[in-house]
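Researcher: Re-running this chain for the archive, since the previous output was lost when a drive failed. Same request as before.
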Amino acid sequence: MDNMSFLYYLMIAFGALIFVAGLTNWEWYFKQRRAQTMIKLMGRNGARIFYALLGLFFAAFGYLVLNGTIKV
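Model: Regenerated structure tokens:
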């Protein structure tokens, strides 16, 4: 495993973490400063949807790059 593939595995892991945090409404995650900014902009449910979609995007992008579907 080279350094670049490690970064994409890390992207999948963090994407999954963000996705699950958005779905399950983890209090510790939404108390973070950046999450508070999104909550002020979109409300709590809007921020949850945003983070779930963002996490899904990160995980899917990392997977598709590792799979060879997307060439980087």
